[in-house]
Design goal:
two-stranded antiparallel sheet; transmembrane; elongated; single chain; alpha+beta; three-stranded antiparallel beta sheet; 4 helices
Length: 116
């Protein structure tokens, strides 16, 4: 939950104060940040554009999965498997493009990508 504020200095570095009334405001996350684990704006989202470009140019090597893994073993294994089978002969590669553009491809922590 985001905290109350009166001015920007009361919000952490990845949030800003949005005034609700003359007396009180609410800290809101800056673009590209989300709140996780009940901590305010503590997680920098992975970029949808970077993910798509990686997938488009070197996705057959699993680069998109490695970028999104953020330490998640499942994503790393998927990236290695995609590398071994050269992008699923184009089919897996194409499916990943569609998932990225449809914003249906979260990062390794389950957080959605920052929109283009």
């Amino acid at each position: 939950m985001l905290s109350d504020c009166i001015y920007n200095g009361e919000c952490d570095g990845s949030a800003h104060c949005v005034r609700v009334s003359d007396i009180v405001g609410s800290c809101e996350c800056n673009t590209g940040y989300v709140s996780t684990d009940s901590l305010q704006c503590n997680y920098a989202q992975k970029s949808e554009l970077v993910t798509f470009l990686l997938s488009f140019f070197v996705g057959y090597l699993g680069a998109d999965w490695f970028y999104l893994a953020d330490g998640d073993a499942g994503y790393i294994v998927a990236g290695v498997f995609k590398l071994i089978i050269t992008g699923g002969f184009g089919i897996w590669w194409l499916i990943d493009w569609i998932r990225i553009l449809a914003n249906a491809f979260p990062d390794g922590n389950g957080v959605e990508l920052e929109q283009m």
